[in-house]
Amino acid sequence: MAIGPTFDPRATTIPVLRYLVAVADHGNFGRAARACSVAQPTLSAQIAQWERRMGVHVFERTNAGVRLTTAGERIVVQARDALAALQRVEESASSGKPPFFGPVRLGVIPTIGAYALPSIAPAIEAAFPDLELPIQEAQTDALLVLLDAGRLDVALVAVLPGMDTGRVVDELYEEQFLVAVPRKHPLAARDRIGHEDLAHERLLLLDEGHCLRDQALELCRMRDGAHRSGADYRATSLETLRQMVAVGIGCTVLPALAVDYGGPDERIAIRPLAMRGSSRTVALVWRASDGRGAAYRQLSATIRRAIPKERLRAR
Question: What is the CATH number of domain 99-315?
Answer without folding.
Answer: 3.40.190.290
